Amino acid sequence: MGSSKTAGAAPPLPWIVAxxxxxxxxxxxxxxxxxxxxxxxxxxxxxxxxxLDAVRTFIAQTRGxxxxxxPPPGAAALAVATAIVGDQVxxxxxGWSFSQRALQRELGVARLVVMNDFETLALxxxxxxxxxxxxxxEAPGQQAAAGAVRAVxxxxxxxxxxxxxxxxxxxxxxxxxxxxxxxxxxxxxxxxATLAAxxxxxxxxxxxxxxxxxxxxxERLLSGIGLPALLQAVAAVRGTKTPERDARAIVAAGTAxxxxxxxxxxxxxxxxxxxSLLGGFAGNVALILxxxxxxxxxxxxVPRLGELFHRSxxxxxxxxxxxxxxxxxxxxxxxxxDTRAALVGAMAALRQLQRIPGP
Length: 359
Fold this sequence. Notes:
The chain has two domains: 1-128 and 344-359, 2-Layer Sandwich (Nucleotidyltransferase, domain 5); 129-337, Hexokinase, domain 1 (3-Layer(aba) Sandwich), CATH 3.40.367. 33% of the residues lie in helices and 20% in strands. It contains twelve helices and 14 strands. The two termini are 17 Å apart.
């Protein structure tokens, strides 16, 4: 977690919270003590030259909704799709970059917190209501272990991975007290871990992808930037050719009703392999983190797959880990359906910081 200020006294409200991805930047206000996010706005990254430009657009378009007497923002928490190392932040899948110190100065806020987007999403997990989640796999015996580590992965423009662990004595086993429970988010760059094959066909897919990328990470195929590469790999293994398509076009053609003018069988097969590979990767993450509290799926791609995803081999492949299949079977998997969940995590980060005594 990057922070321009040490923890301690709460910065004055209102706060700005943001979720900055490679395609969209989502913003919202936190106006009331103990309240939720309000006045959310989504802006396309490509239409704004810098992050500061986007923040200023958000303030200009929503400031009036706070009321004429509302003070300027006292803090901002930004979830960004990249690793945070030092003051300078470079977005992985967009051209935006910024200095944390300079951004805080330009915004005039008392506190600026900059975090990896999936670290932030992990902080939101205990605060998500049932209406914000959809169960993946309904096999009997699946039950989240109370107070256990949780994991979240998400194919969007890239592929994010993070964990969430309870702090000793923080009350993290009581989800009804989530606002006061203390959780430690575990950021990482797991999307860049090497992708593994589970059968000969997947091995051939990875070999085909390796012709164009020396290192085939999970993100190389299981993301918005990766779906076109996965489509071309499927075509190569099948011994055919297919036009170049972006992720949106692949999803549309692959989920269209079979036999319709929009449907494409190679795109559909690509999405089926996407779900299988994602399930295997998710199972790896759950094993590595010991995520007996559940595995959550974020990102923008999976919700758009609809029933194709729920009928896919995702859950089968999640559990297919040989001797440790019995370890994974009880672990529930959920799809996060609320695109504003990371904003809730950003709000949680600011509230968590103000409860931690400063040095």
